[in-house]
Design a protein that fits this description.
about 240 residues; 2 domains; single chain; about 20% strand; 4-stranded antiparallel sheet; Glutaredoxin; alpha+beta; elongated; 7 helices; about 40% helix; Nuclear Transport Factor 2, Chain: A
């Protein structure tokens, strides 16, 4: 009897797996044939809503469909009982950046006090919110800041980023410009390696960093937009508990 039950369970599991694979194949086939953008689907999984499947393309773009790919939904899926935006949570998980894996070689580092607490910031030198944030950030002590130049506001942002990156002391030059409004040097030495700036932009696009400033903390917290020094302290405090 026990052997019979085991075989029955294995058969049922096999049938369920086969059905799931067939459904996924149908979704992939139908969407690819009907919508060119869906020729390369990253992943298909069951959503929290019965009968609805999550379709992920281009790394982090989320859509929903039925078991045969006959219908397509673009938008957020909400759990009304728990009042949760399931789509937003999924995208946040997909776009999470491990602080330990940040390419800090492509940033310049500013250390204040003992530097025990850590954070990273993606900023554009022409970003007004970034300048306001930088002025407030001067109040935060005992911190190590990895500053990633992220010129996304136009050609002038790129030119200023080059001047800052190639300065003898990039951290001081950055602070002088953003906080004290001192002018930047107009020349960039030909020997200066500017590929870090290009990599920063590529990294930001990959992880959907769509605005500046964007703050990253050691516990994985990601904050888009300028926040006060008190809020920065709160996030830094969470990472040291």
């Amino acid at each position: 009897m026990k052997l019979f039950k085991t075989l029955f369970v294995l058969l049922a599991c096999g049938l369920a797996l086969g059905m799931a694979q067939a459904q996924e194949a149908a979704i992939r086939k139908n969407l690819a044939e009907r919508i060119p953008q869906f020729k390369n689907i990253d992943e298909i999984t069951k959503s929290a809503m019965p009968g609805l499947y999550e379709v992920r393309i281009n790394g982090m773009e989320i859509f929903y469909t039925d078991a045969e790919g006959n219908y397509l939904i673009q938008g957020s899926l909400f759990d009304t009982r728990q009042r949760r935006n399931l789509t937003e949570e999924r995208v946040d998980k997909l776009s999470a950046i491990s602080f330990d894996l940040l390419p800090v070689k492509d940033a310049f580092t500013i250390v204040r006090g003992n530097g025990k607490r850590k954070m990273a910031v993606f900023e554009d030198p022409n970003c007004g919110y970034c300048k306001r944030f930088e002025r407030d950030l001067q109040k935060v002590d005992n911190v190590t800041i990895h500053m990633f130049l992220y010129p996304i506001l136009g050609p002038d942002s790129l030119e200023k980023s080059k001047q800052i990156w190639c300065a003898k002391d990039a951290g001081k030059t950055w602070t002088d410009y953003m906080v004290r409004e001192q002018p930047l040097a107009q020349t960039v030495t030909p020997a200066c390696d500017l590929t870090a700036i290009t990599r920063n932009v590529e990294f930001g696009r990959k992880y959907k960093i769509n605005g500046t400033p964007t703050l990253l903390f050691a516990d994985g917290s990601r904050v888009p937009g300028a926040i006060s020094a008190a809020q920065v302290e709160k996030y830094l405090g969470q990472t040291t508990k």
